[in-house]
Amino acid sequence: MRRAAAERPDLVEALRELAGLLAEEMDILADKETEERIKTVEIPEDLPDHEKELVRRVQEDKGLQEALKDPKIQRFLMEIRGNPPLLARALATADQDMQKKLKKLIESGLLQVQH
Questions:
Q1: In 10 A of CB 50, how many CB atoms?
Q2: Is 67 exposed, middle or buried (0-12, 13-18, 19+ CB in 10 A)?
Q3: DSSP label of 110
Q4: Residue-level pLDDT, tens digit, the chain, 115 residues
């Protein structure tokens, strides 16, 4: 490979570009597979109706799915489990992306602000 890199930098660059495209395609395929699995999750019959509705909302809304998959949001959700008032503070102080995702979760009914 070193010899090819020295003799054919154009080939090496083409291989790098191809590797990048393959990685992008793998990400797209993984996202589509995850999307399909989310849609086919069976909702347990013993859940209360309002919880069944929340599950359906997540299954149908890619924005909710993205928010719930975000590692920052996941960490934050773990933090507020022990300190719910943090949510109100985060809505005022978090970066725009996090605020947007938190508002999405609130609007869907997955989160509630306690004052």
A1: 8
A2: buried
A3: S
A4: 556 556 766 666 667 777 776 777 676 666 777 777 777 778 888 888 888 888 888 888 989 998 998 999 999 888 888 888 888 888 889 899 999 999 999 999 888 887 6
Angle at 55 between CA 50 and CA 59, to 5 degrees: 145
Length of the chain measured in residues: 115
Report residue 37 as tokens.
């699995």
| Overall pTM > 0.70 | no
Distance CA 52, CA 47 (A): 6
Residue reference for tokens 């990685």: 23
Tokens of 101: 């995702």
Q: Residue 84 has what DSSP assignment? A: T
Spatial CA neighbour of 105 closest among 28, 115, 76: 76
CA angle 94, 56, 36 (to 5 degrees): 90
Contact (Cβ atoms closer than 8 angstroms) between residue 63 and residue 70? no
